[in-house]
Design brief:
4-stranded antiparallel sheet, 27 strands, mainly beta, 3% helix, globular, Tachylectin-2, Chain A, homodimer
Chain lengths: 351, 351
């Protein structure tokens, strides 16, 4: 059965040095995870920061100053008694009709020999720098493919929530490949090998006029341009994933199919984790899926936090047939849990 | 100045033979347009049909029967006094939480020697046949590139409104290339030549959480896989295009830049046409744009129809420096108008 680490939470905001003296880290969450050739577990986590000193009666949004070549973070400020100010939830507010985030995120590396105790880099690894990243970079997923690590991450700006791609050989030098999925799209997981000669991924568009937030498959010849989109699966009424679903960890190859941990939320915004098995030769075909959550918010650090009642994974590592799932808890901290692969497969219901 | 054809509307539902005896054509609209090598103007228009005999007190949605290999159109019926029935507007209704279209569209060719009097093919040219086209195929745009005609069209299903690609050499045999933009995305116009070695297009994603329906640019090496997405332009508050905008006709090369006719709607759903000039070497850079509409609904056939107060173009042809704009009027019929290219360029305001 699924066992949470006794060490949880494994990474908390207080463990992470802010990128600037006048900032504080408010959330350390949603990490891509990969095991390096030397056995090291590497997490690339999202670190959300905000200015330390916000005067009473003011709201602040940290964002890129696109007018400056050095793309420094600047602060948008407004009074909370302004008629044009509307607090939405802890994550964002609206001012003069525009939605802003209360924090800005960068990505940061943490490394561990045992997968539980992590050494966190003292400085950011990948920071917002483009117009499409004006409000920050979030929720990375790491796929190792043909000699490089490919990282999909959420690029947030006033024009929408999109998914961009970067790659690296060493997690020091990165190459950016631009936005690969236009708004609104996030939770992009690239499969770790070619399937039928092509690269594949799962992604999560959010339709407006018809349809609901669902998982889709897409195909590529170069990882940078995607096409041949197809619907994969959506939420199920009256279940834990009735509200919205999206990809979680990068799919893992098993004898029975590609296994992907995904997240689902109900209409009360309670985020759980489940799993889906897709066909080895056709990742657009669902074979089996969790009827009940694999994990639901339960521990105190999952129920209470920046945005409560959330477990959200963007990375998992398989070692000796045991799956270690790394996950953001209550949008505030990082935690881990292990579960034997056979238990996950056994929990799935054929569809 | 812009002059409507004296012949308007040039194509009406009554001119078009339905695809089945038990169907009637309700709308003939939104046509891709291209001038063939022999001078013929070819329109590929959207033809919307619905069952002829709908009993009083019933609503009907024609859609593909995905359970059958031959993918025939079947009819979903529900009583209009059903508590789970909600009429939305003439275009769709909601039943048991699912949105349905009141008609199903196919694409049909019409040809003309003078660009005004059209001969309409007696049978459909391109029909819905895939799961992503369950509710029909709509709003084609035609781009001639390297020996083939490339057609982007809207693929509508219960999973969303997406854009698919097909190609042909002769408008008889078509090859389908699948969904190139996942939901919600439509109004995709592919540029008629490579720019800096790559293919480019404008598209229109619809963000949900942050941002609004806006025009973006994307790039491709093969027309089937797209990436490097970037924001192009959005609606402007308190103008005719404040509500939503999207691409219209395929961009036309001029000395000053690529000229694209686009549509904008205000918050009362009044659809007008405007124009935008983008950089010859960078179609992601706006040079100038219509402050006032190039065309607003005015004629009776534009104001009254299936969905009134709409002029919507998906195709234009340039001949001897005169632009002929083909457009859907009030979502019911097809009309045309001419305007000297210099007048369009002169109307634009640098940004």
């Amino acid at each position: 059965m699924l066992e949470r680490f006794a060490e949880n939470p494994i990474i908390e905001p207080s463990h992470v040095a802010p990128s600037r003296e006048d900032f504080e880290v408010v959330c350390t969450l949603n990490a891509g995870a990969i095991q390096m050739p030397d056995g090291t577990v590497l997490l690339l986590m999202r670190v959300a920061e905000r200015p330390k000193d916000v005067r009473q009666g003011w709201a602040t949004a940290p964002l890129l100053d696109l007018t400056r070549d050095d793309r420094q973070i600047t602060l948008l400020r407004c009074r909370t008694d302004d008629a044009e100010y509307d607090p939405v939830d802890p994550r964002w507010f609206i001012y003069q009709g525009q939605k802003y985030l209360t924090s800005i995120s960068h990505l940061r590396v943490a490394r561990s020999q045992d997968g539980r105790r992590f050494q966190i880099d003292p400085t950011p690894t990948l920071v917002a720098e483009r117009a499409c990243e004006e409000f920050g970079v979030e929720d990375p997923r790491i796929t190792y493919l043909e000699g490089r690590y490919w990282i999909t991450y959420t690029a947030v700006s006033r024009h929408g929530i999109a998914t961009a791609l970067a790659s690296t050989e060493d997690f020091h030098e990165f190459q950016r490949h631009g936005v690969i999925f236009c708004p609104e799209n996030r939770d992009v997981t690239i499969f770790p090998e070619r399937i039928g000669g092509r690269y594949a991924c799962h992604h999560r568009p959010v339709p407006v006029n018809i349809g609901q937030a669902s998982m889709w498959v897409a195909w590529s010849d170069d990882l940078m341009h995607w096409g041949d989109h197809g619907y994969l699966m959506g939420g199920r009424p009256d279940t834990w994933d009735s509200g919205r679903i999206g990809g979680g960890a990068v799919p893992i190859k098993t004898e029975r199919g590609w296994l992907a941990v995904y997240h689902g939320a109900d209409h009360q915004n309670r985020y759980c984790l489940g799993a889906v098995l897709v066909d080895l030769d056709d990742p657009g075909r669902v074979l089996a899926r969790s009827r009940e959550p694999l994990m639901a918010p339960q521990a105190d650090y999952e129920v209470h936090g920046f945005f409560g009642n959330v477990v959200f994974s963007s990375g998992a590592v398989l070692t000796d047939d045991v799956l270690t799932i790394y996950y953001g808890a209550a949008d505030r901290c990082l935690a881990g849990a292990t579960v034997p692969l056979q238990d996950v497969l056994g929990q799935l219901e054929p569809v």
